[in-house]
Design brief:
By secondary structure, the chain is mainly α. It contains 6 helices and 2 strands.
Length: 134
């Protein structure tokens, strides 16, 4: 029986997943959440939500230095970590929005035309053009 690529990735990742059970990580994570108690994605949307996850901005993939580098950490709520952040890593762009509901990631499909100068993004609701600049 052939193993799926997902299963193979899990085998490759087993070693670095152990980093999450170390005392150094547990203490560092707890201190970071005390110092950064709010979800960064929610704050960008103008909401106040407690952060429960310390996310690695750049996936560490077992790199110990990157894993423990606090400059590579961000506080997120579980829904944003489990959905939005996972989508970013799969798709290469973020669904995060500003307080008005516009995507803040220049790589978001709605903003790609802005970068190339082709057109402006559609405003949420009504299909009207926005005058908002990136």
């Amino acid at each position: 029986m052939k193993k799926s690529s997902r299963f193979n990735r899990s085998l490759e990742a087993q070693e670095w997943r152990r980093l999450y059970s170390t005392q150094k990580w547990r203490k560092g994570r707890a201190a970071y959440l005390r110092d950064h108690p709010l979800c960064q994605y929610c704050e960008h949307q103008g909401r106040t939500t407690a952060a429960t996850v310390v996310d690695h901005v750049t996936p560490h993939k077992g790199d110990h230095d990157l894993f423990y580098d606090r400059a590579n950490w961000q506080p997120l709520c579980a829904p944003h970590h489990d959905a939005a952040k996972a989508q970013e890593e799969r798709g290469g762009w973020s669904n995060r929005t500003d307080a008005e509901g516009y995507p803040i990631d220049p790589n978001h499909p709605q903003n790609r035309s802005l970068v190339s100068g082709v057109s402006e993004p559609l405003r949420h609701g009504g299909g009207k053009r926005s005058s908002r600049k990136p």
